[in-house]
Amino acid sequence: MNILILGAGQLARMMSLAGAPLDLNVVAYDVGSEKIIHPLTGEVHSSTLQQAIDNADAITAEFEHIPDDVLTLCCQSNKFYPGKAAIKTGGDRALEKALLDKTHVECAPYQLITEKAHLIAAVERLGKPLVIKTCQAGYDGKGQWRLKSDDEIEQIWSEMADFIASGTDSAPHSIIAEKMIPFDREVSIIGARDKAGNTVIYPLTENQHTNGVLTLSVAGKEKAAIQEQAERAFNKLAQELDYVGVLAIEFFDVQGTLLVNEIAPRVHNSGHWTQQGTHCSQFENHMRAVAGLPLGSTELLRPTAMINVLGQPSIPQSVLATHDVTSHWYGKTAKPGRKMGHINVSADNLHQLGERLAALAEILPEEDYPGVANTSTQLILN
Ligand code: ATP
Ligand code: MG
User: Is the CB of 65 inside a 6 Å radius of any atom of ligand 1?
Assistant: First the structure.
């Protein structure tokens, strides 16, 4: 079967790797160069986008910021999953909030902003501090402001006004203000839904962000009650979107109550641990779902942690000498802060996982790999 993926980054690469044993042939559409390429080698194919669409049995996406005309073309083929509405919702925080309100899934209190009066009203109604985000662009904490005092309103508004003004009639820009949530931690749920509406859901993952970017995830330490809460949200949202494929939902955990932060209509960085922690990774389940194949087991095999490799020229080979460590390199050119690869480490129990993270912390400097040493101490003490 032939699968076309919109986007040619590491997520397409890992979907392609997961699809190969299933006899799924993957090509990727690089939105920047507008070329069809091989997702592993980068080799450019001679086919046009339309030819790749015609040749595909199923089409999917690795990210949500896809040009509208490309999305429309793919949808016309009736082979595109998870569908235009899901991709649009994941790429626009205003649509995302509307979906959450409609399905009665809790999120941070918010206000949409298109003019200065709305910002002033948001400060009055929601209080300070506020997290202000662009609705349509932004990833890894980009396109965000933190408003802590009234003196900052003028400066932040002028930057917001520039973003709003840069929108067009066909692609208008807006802003959202959210109450700053004093969360205890961040977690995410990842699951897959097939064409018949069956779902499989992975164990909840605890995520650590540094400067707005995911640095470390741990799976395998969650209690049933919080897992059930996350699964309820997942099922409501996946059903409302008539979703097909892998869907990720990020939450704030506030004293055991989950508030949705973001919805990602795709495989997600916080699910990379599933490559070693489960029988069927998020990448394989996404490929299975869009190809119309039965979904695979999401059961946790072993507690697993994932460490992001950000901006580094390579992954130190010595990490592979630690038990049950795998390294995943994306083959991209290094830039400061860029997601270059990740390291997965599994263990028989959480204590052993802590010991293995301690061994990795000896190799991986804290400034480049924040939180590894700290997480290892916490796992060992618990
Ligand atoms: P991603 O790469 O996950 O798509 P993003 O740029 O879309 O990131 P968010 O996930 O919305 O942005 O925010 C990045 C981080 O900023 C969050 O993981 C969280 O740590 C913090 N943050 C965002 N919104 C809030 C909020 N309302 N209250 C407190 N912290 C927040
Ligand atoms: Mg996020």
Answer: no
C-alpha 24 – ligand 1 centre gap (Å): 34
Is 366 labelled a binding residue? no
Ligand 1 near 140 CB (within 6 A): yes
Residue 261, annotated ligand binder? yes
Residue corresponding to tokens 């704030």: 252
Residue pair 176/97 in contact by the 8 Å Cβ criterion: yes
pLDDT-derived band of residue 330, with 50, 70 and 90 as boundaries? very high
Dump pLDDT digits (tens) for 92-102.
999 999 999 99
CATH no. of 109-179 = 3.30.1490.20
Which is nearest to 359 in space by CA: 327, 314, 322? Answer: 322
CATH 2.40.50.140 assigned to domain 2-80? The reply is no
Q: How far is CA 148 from CA 145, 151, 179, 180, in A?
A: 10, 9, 11, 10
The strands making up 25-30's β-sheet, listed across from edge to edge, are 35-37, 25-30, 2-6, 58-61
Q: What is the pTM of this model?
A: 0.96
